Amino acid sequence: MRIDSLFAAARAAGTIPVSFEMFPPKGELTLERARAAAEKLCALKPDFVSVTCSAGGSGNSSATADIAQMISRDFGTSSVAHLTGIGLTHAGLAERIAAYRAAGVENVLALRGDLPQTGDAPSGDFSYAADIIPALVDAGFCVGAAAYPEGHIACDSLAESVRHLKLKQDAGASFLVTQLFFDNDLFYRFRELADAAGITVPITCGIMPFMSKQQVTRMVFMCGASLPSPVIKLLARFEDDPDGLMRAGIDYACDQLVDLAEHGVDGLHVYAMNRPSVARAAMQALRAIGPL
User: Fold this and answer.
1) pLDDT band at 122 (very low <50, low <70, confident <90, very high)
2) Which one of 21, 39, 192, 239 is the catalytic residue?
3) What is the pTM of this model?
C-alpha cells in the first residue's frame, strides 16, 4: 500500500499509524536473521516497516530492496525502502530506480545519506535529498523524506532546517519521518514551525530507545539530539547496571510514544534496531491507551 494513502485513511478514521524501522544484513546479521527479525516485527501488525541502507551511500541497496519486497510480499505489511543520494550520479540514480521497481517497491524514503567518516562528500550529482525526490516521484514511487525536530546537524538554525523541509515537500515528498529525539516538547515546537512554514504532509515521529550510554553518546554527536534532564539522570542512575539502563531506555521511549499519541501526532515510527522486543514493548504501551 502507498504510504500517502495509508496516512490519508488513518486521518479519515482518526487513528495514528505506527511503523517500525529495521536495517538489512551487515556484519553478523545474515539475510536469514534479517528475515526472522522482519517476520517478528510484522507479526506485531505495524502499519508499515521501513528498511535502511548503508551509510555513506555504499553497499547494500540491493538488500534494502529485497527485504522491502519480502516484507510486503511474504508478510503482508507495507514497506518503505530507504534510498540515499550521496555519491550518486544521474545514471546511478536511474539504476537504483530500476532495481527498486523490479523488486516491486512502492514507497521510498529519500535521504541525502551520511557523509563518510572523513567528512568529505563523495563525488556525485546530488547534494540534498530534495534533489533526488522529483526523479523518484516521476518513477511512480510514493516518496517520503526526513525531518529534523532540532534542526539538521549541518544547519545553522532550526528555521533554516524547516526551510529545507519545505523544499522537500515542494519537490514531491508526501510524508515525513523525523530523526530521533528525546524531548517531546521540542517536537511540539517544531510542529508549530512546520505548520507556519506551510508544511501540510503527515509528519511521523521517530523514537529510538536508548540502550546504552555509548549508544546515546553516539546518537548525540551524529544527530545533534539533545538530552533532557530525565535522560541524564537515568544514565547516571544506571551507570553500572547495563540491563537496568536498557529497561529504563525502553520505558522512557514508551512514555514518549504514549505522550505523542495523546497529543494527536500524525504517526509514530519506532527505531526498533531489529529488536522485536523493542517493537513489542512499544505496541503494548500504545495499545494500552486505546485503539491505534
Assistant:
1) low
2) 21
3) 0.94
